[in-house]
Amino acid sequence: MYKNKKKEGRNFPDPLAPQDQKVKKEYGLRYARAIENQWGTLDDQNSLYKRRNDQFEVNRDYANGTQDTTIYKSLLTALNPNDGDGSLLNLDFTPVPILPKFVRIVVNKILSKNPYPNIEAVDPLSSSEKDREKNRIRVQTQLKPQLEQLKQLTGGLVLDEDPDNLPDTLEEAEIFLETNVKTDAEISGQIATNLTLTWNNFYDNTFRRCVNDLASLGMSVIKRSNDPNYGIKTEYVDPSTFIHSQTEDPNFDDITYAGHIKRITIQELKRLAGDQLTEEQYKKIAEKSKHKSYNDGSKLYVKDYDRYMNKNVYGYDEYMVDILEFEFLSVDCMHFEEKENRYGNTGFYYEGYKYKEKRGSIYDRTPHKMDVVTVYGGTYVLGCGYLFGYGMKKNTPKNAHDLTRARLSYSVVSTNLRRMQPKSMVESCVGFADMLQITHLKLQQAIAKAKPDGLIIDIEGLENVQLGKGGELEPLDLHDIYEKTGVFYYRSKNPEGGFQNPPVREIGNSIRNINELIGLYNHYLRMIRDATGINEMMDGTTPKGDTLVGVQQQAIAAGNNAIYDITNASMILFKKVCEDVVRCLQILPEGSVVQQAYANAIGEENVKALSSFNDLFMYNFGVTVQKEMEDQERAFLEQNIQVALAQQTLDLEDAIAIRSLKDINQAERLLIVKRKKRIKQQQEIAAQNSQIQAQQAAQAAQVASQAKAQEMQLQAQLKAQEMQLQSELDIQVAAVRHEFEKELAAIKASVTKSIAGEGNEFRLGLEKMKEDRKDERVGLQTEDQSKLISQRQGKRGEVTKLKETGNVLLDISRKVINEQQNGEEGQS
C-alpha cells in the first residue's frame, strides 16, 4: 500500500517510521490527507462526515422543536405543493415542542446533581502516608478517654491534636477517614482542579452543552489545551465537526487520531498560520473557497492598501474556509545505554531517539530501548492541501508512574455507538414526534373544518303563510323572524289537507373525530415516554394525590434507569476532563506565568505540594466523580432525620452534619452512628439519673431517720424539761400557796377579830336602834290614834296608813344590815 503512487496520497503513512521522518511536514500532510479522504467533506453526499453531520443537524432541530415542516405540508395538501397549483390549509405548522421538554428534563436532572472532582493519590507513597494517618486516628480514637484525662491534667500543652475533635467510636472514625483524611497534595490538587474548571466556566457553559449533546446527538466532545502562556483550557467541541479513527468503544479510549473542523475567515487563518503560508497560498485557498460558504466571488480580486496598518488588505480576507485541527498518537523509541567507566562503575545514560551502537569500545556497553507513546498534531486547510503548526506536541500530560503512555487532548463519550454513528434519545423518538405533529395538525384541520350551528329548512312548509295585512311572507322573511324573535310560523297542513312535520330542524356543531384524534395524540405521547423512559412521575406533569409514595419512587427509579446511559456518559466525560486537568497541573513549567497565577490563587506551598518534591517524584492521582444524592434519596434521608429528631435520638448539630454530606451511603452510615451514639448517651444519662435518684432516696431516708431520732430525742428532752419545770412549778405553787394560806390565815384571824369587835358594836347599836325605833313607833301610834280620834270627831282629814309606815321602817332596817355585811366582806 505504501508503494502504490496512486493511493499514496490517500493512505495513512507508516506508523513505524523513525522519529526524524514523523516530525517532518510531509508526514503530517500525508496523515491529514488520509483523514480527509477517510471522512470526506460536506460537499460529498456519501461521505461519513456529511451523513453524520446531517443526522446531527436533524436531531438538533427536533431537540429544539424547529424541525422542517415540509413533510407535514406535503401530507396535508390537496394537490402537489411543489408545482404551485395546490392549496394548503390555513394551519399553524409550528412543531409541538414535546421533545425539547424531555431533553430539558434529562439535562436539568443530570446537572442538578452538581458533580465535583474528588482527587485521590493512588501511588504507593501516598497510600502509605494515608494509611499511617488513618492508623494514628484509629489509635487516638481508642485512647480518647485517656487523652481527655491527659488534657485536663496538662491543659492540652503536650497534645498535638485536641481530643474533642476526634471521633468517639471506630465506626464514626471510618466515616471520618473516608471523607476527611487527605494528603496535602490531594487537597492542593482538588482545589486547583476546581479553580481551573471555574476559570474556564466549565460548569455553567461547557458541561451543560455537553450534556445537552448527549441527550440530543448521543455524543459529547471536550478538548483540553495546555499552554505555558495561556494556561489550562477546556474547550467545547461540536460533535458534528468531530472526526476520529475507527472505534466501537463508546468511551473512545482506543482511538489513534482525532480532530475537529472549524470554519474561520482567511483573516483569522492568517493570524493562526502567520508566515507559515504565503500570500499566494492564501489566494489559492480563496480561489477554491469562493463558491462555498456563501462567499462573494466578486471580492476575490479586490485589493486595497491600509495606511494605518501599513499593509495590503484583500477582499478575500472575509472568505470562510474550513480547517482541520488534528492530532494522532505514535510510538517512538527512546534509547538508553548502560556502560561501564574506567573506575568500574556502571551508569545508565539517555541517548535520545537516534542511537547507533558503538563498536570497538574498551568498556562494556549494553543498549536499552523503550517505546514511548507521543502525540503529533497540526492544522490542515481542507480541500487545499496546506498544513501549518505541525510537530510533536509539547507539555503532554502523562501518568506520573507510566511515562510510556499518552492520550489525546480530546475527551469523548457517546451512547449506543454503532458503525461510527451514535444513537441518541432524540433520534429514537423522531418518528413518534412526526406522528404526534401530524395528529396535532389533523386536530387543527378538524377544528378548521367544523361548521357553526345550522338549520334544515323545508321550503314547502313555509309557503303561503299569511300574517295580517302584509299578505303572504316569503320563506326568507320567516327565517329572519325566527332568527330575531325565536318565533317560527308554518302551516301544519299541506295543500292536500294532511298534517306535516315542522319544516325547520337544528344541526349541532360537533367536530368530527375529535375524540379519536385526541386519543391518537395521547398514544404517540405515550410512545415517546416509553422510548425515553421519562414517565409522568419523573417530569411531574400529572401528579396524582392518591398515588402511593412507594409507587412514585418506583416510577422515578424506572426513569433513572432509562436515562442511566446518558448520566453515566456525562460522569465519565467529567472524570476524563478532571484527569487531564490534574495531570496538566503537575507539569506546569516552573517560573511560568501560569504557575505564578496558580500560586497567587491557591498558595505557593500548595503548588509545590502538587507538582513535585525535592527528593520524591510526583503523585499519581486518581479522580472519582462525586455527585449529590437523588431527590427521593434526600427526601428519604430527611424523613429518617425528622423521625430521629422527634424521638430525641439525634442532636440538631448532628442533623446539620448529615445533611451536608453529598453521598447517600455516607449520610446513612453517619446517621446510624450518630443515633447509636445518642442512644448510648441517653442510656448512660438514664443510668446516672437512676443512680442519682437512688442516692437521693437513700440520703432522704437517712435524713428522715436522723430527723426522727432527733425528734424523739427532742421530745424526750422536752418531756424531761417539762417534768422539771412542772416539779419546779409545783414547788413554787406550793410555796406560793403556803405563803397565801399563811397570809390568808393571818387575814382571817385579823378579820375574825375585827368582825368580832364590830359585831358587838353592831349588836349594841342595833339594840339601841331597835329601842329607838320602838319608842318612835309608839309615839307614832299614839299620834295616829289621836289623829284617828280627831278624824272620827271630824276635826281633820285622812291619816296615812300605819302599814305603809311600817314597811318603810322595815326597808330602812334591811338596808342598814346589808351595808353592814358588805363592809365586813370588803375587809376580809
Set down the secondary structure blueprint.
Blueprint (H helix, E strand, L loop, with lengths): L4 H4 L10 H4 L2 H15 L8 H17 L5 H7 L22 H13 L4 E6 L2 H19 L1 H11 L15 H11 L3 H16 L2 H15 L2 E9 L3 E7 L4 E3 L12 E9 H8 L5 H11 L13 E4 L4 E4 L5 E21 L5 E7 L12 E17 L4 E7 L17 E5 L2 E2 L2 E2 L7 H19 L5 E4 L7 E2 L5 E2 L1 H11 L18 E4 L6 H19 L3 H4 L9 H14 L1 H23 L6 H10 L1 H8 L9 E6 L4 H16 L5 H8 L4 H129 L9 H26 L1
Antiparallel strand pairs: 1-19, 2-3, 2-12, 4-5, 5-8, 6-7, 8-9, 8-10, 10-11, 13-14, 15-18, 16-17
Helix pairs in contact: 6-11, 7-9, 10-19, 10-21, 11-19, 14-16, 20-21, 22-24, 23-24, 24-25
Poorly predicted residue ranges: 1-8, 613-617
Share of residues in strands: 5-15%
The helix count comes to 25
Query: Helix share of residues?
Result: 40-55%
Oligomerization state of this entry? single chain
Biggest sheet overview: 6 strands, antiparallel
User: Count the strands?
Assistant: 19
Task: Please describe what this structure looks like.
The protein is α+β, with helices and mostly antiparallel strands and 828 residues long. Among the domains are: 15-20 and 256-407, no CATH class; 664-827, no CATH class. Helices cover 53% and strands 15% of the residues. Strands 4, 5, 8, 9, 10 and 11 form a six-stranded antiparallel β-sheet that branches. A three-stranded antiparallel β-sheet has the order 3-2-12. A two-stranded antiparallel sheet has the order 1-19. The radius of gyration is 61 Å and the shape is elongated.
